[in-house]
Amino acid sequence: MSAHTSPKTKQIALVTGGTGGIGTAICQALEQSGFTVIAASASQAKAEAWSKQQKELGFNIEACVLDVSDHEACKNIVLDLEEVHGPIAVLVNAAGVTRDATLKKMFVDQWQTVIDVNLTGTFNMCRSVIPLMLERGFGRILNISSINGQKGQFGQVNYAASKAGMHGLTMSLAQEVASKGITVNTISPGYIATDMVLAVPEDVRKKIIAQIPVGRLGEPEEIARIVDFLAGDGSGFITGSNIAANGGQHMQF
Ligand code: CAA
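Output (C-alpha cells, whole complex):
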C-alpha cells in the first residue's frame, strides 16, 4: 500500500485524455497508488468501452465525457465530480491531438483544433480546478507535453507550438501557486508506443526511431511512473519543472 492510500484520505485524481495511450497507463498507475481515478474522454462510446475494459483488467476507474476545449464543460465537470467524489487533489492534462502537416499545407482548422485541445484545454482545466485547490491549500497539476514542444518537429508547427505553450503555462502557474501548496509540472515524453505515434507513416517512424539512442519507442508506463511520483505528497519541492523522458533523443542542459 503506498503513501497515498488510506480509506479516509483517498485522494481524487482527474486525468484528461485518460482513455488514451499514455492516459490509460497514468490512470492505472494512480489507481494502484491508491487514488480514486476519473478518466475524461472526448467520446462517450470510448469512455464506456474503456471503463468496462479497465474493470475486466481489475482497475476500478470511472470514465466521464469531456471536451476540454469547451471552457464551460470543464468548469461544470470539475464541480460535478467534486460533489460526487470529493476534492480533486491531482489534475493530469493528458488530452492531446495531432493534425500533422507542413506549414505550407496546413489549414487553419488543423492549427486551431490542436491549439484548442492541447493548450486551451490545459488552461480550461487549470482554470477550473485552481480556485478549489487554492481554497484547500493543496494540489498537484501535471501537464503532459512532448519532446516536440522542446525541439520542434517537421510537420508539427501546430503541435509543437501547443506543447511548448503548455510548459510556458506550467512555469507561470507554478509561480502563482507555489506558496499555496500546489505544484505544477510538465512531463515531456518522447516517442511512446501509442496509437498516436503508430499513426505516423511507417517510413517516417523508422527514421525517428533510428534517432532514439536507447533504440526503441518508450512505453506508456515509463511516463506514468513519473506522473505517479510527482503526484505524491512527498514531491512538494518539485514545481515548474519539465521532466523529459525521451530515450535520449533530445538532451538539454
Ligand atoms: N526533415 C527535412 N525534410 C523532410 C523531413 C524532415 N524530417 N521529412 C520530410 N521532408 C521532406 C521530404 O523529403 C520532401 O522533400 P521534397 O519536397 O524535396 O521531395 C518534403 O519534405 C515533403 O514535404 P510535404 O509538405 O510534401 O510533406 P508531406 O505532406 O509528404 O508529409 C508529414 C509531411 C505529414 C508531416 C510527414 O512528414 C509526417 O507524418 N511526419 C511525422 C511528423 C511527426 O513526427 N509526428 C509525430 C506524431 S506523434 C506525436 O506527436 C507524439 C509526440 O508527442 C512525440
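Residues 98, 100-102, 105, 146-148, 153-156, 159, 191, 196-197, 200-201, 204, 208 surround acetoacetyl-coenzyme A (CB under 6 Å).
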